[in-house]
Amino acid sequence: MKPELSVVIPVYNEEAGLATLFARLYPALDALQMPYEIIFVNDGSRDNSVALLAEQYRQRPDVTRVVLFNGNYGQHMAILAGFEQTRGEIVVTLDADLQNPPEEIGKLIEKMREGYDYVGSIRRKRQDTAWRTVASKMMNRLRERITNIRITDQGNMLRAYGRNVIDLVNQCGEVNTFVPALAYKFARKPAEIVVEHEERAAGESKYSLYSLIRLNFDLMTGFSLVPLQMFSMLGIMLSFGSALLVLLLLARRFLFGAEAEGVFTLFAIAFFFMGVILFGIGLVGEYVGRIYQQVRARPRYVVQTILQGMPGKETEEVPAGVTIEKRQVVR
Ligand code: UDP
Ligand code: MG
Known about the structure:
The protein has 331 residues and is α/β, with parallel strands linked by helices. 49% of the residues lie in helices and 15% in strands. α1 (15-30) links the parallel β1 and β2 (36-42).
């Protein structure tokens, strides 16, 4: 039977929390009384996650599918690979660490049934470290200003997407992207609801400060040219300013003769502008690097194996290491 709901979950080194996730997720979805499927995407975990996912697949092959990457391609690539496999009319994404309570999925579905094709969610009380909450607020504010994506809580992955949105996302070949923003672009009627948020059930965050900065660059450069335009504007203003300064110095040269004071002020100003220039070059580089990655058109991720199928064999024991479908490159 074709599932109505597809749940996509990226998994990267989550062995410590998977058992609890299974124990809460399946009953929560069973309670919804609609045909569903859960697609786990293993993003190259180096711990025992794959074995746990395969075991869970053996337990519930009727509703479980597992996509196995051959390496670590990042959370957003994992979600996109999951999207390609979805069959449901509604697709829900969720983190594997139980920070998004599976019991909240019902609320998303309810909202979707009111006729929306994108239901985002806002964490009622975010359970993360203080610095992340503050930094994330600032990034949300910046993104609101420089892109036309209107989502209140961008870092939150608990979201529901309609089939129309998913089909369009599946046609995109973006290498560096941010799934909630990309999907928002294609939504005809987006909405948001407030949901609960929990502390990470087990293990620790897979994002370092560095990878968080990279991710936010993906978001800003992927959905806006405003940073580049601001630099053009800044350049124009600085040119005007320095033209005025030249005129002033020229006038003083004639009025007061040669002057050589204020060398250090000049240094300070010069160093400041050097910093601005370096930042500008770096910013251009962020765009150029992404263009380079995009034009090389290498596979965005490689799916090693997909555990799925076995219709009608729900109760039978599935032998260990079974692979039903083999695929290679997916663009
Ligand atoms: N994740 C992933 N690949 C990565 C990093 C993270 O698939 O390279 C998954 C991770 O297993 C989890 C989700 O993305 O299901 C969110 O990661 P995490 O909870 O570490 O992020 P945070 O909540 O700290 O933002
Ligand atoms: Mg988390």
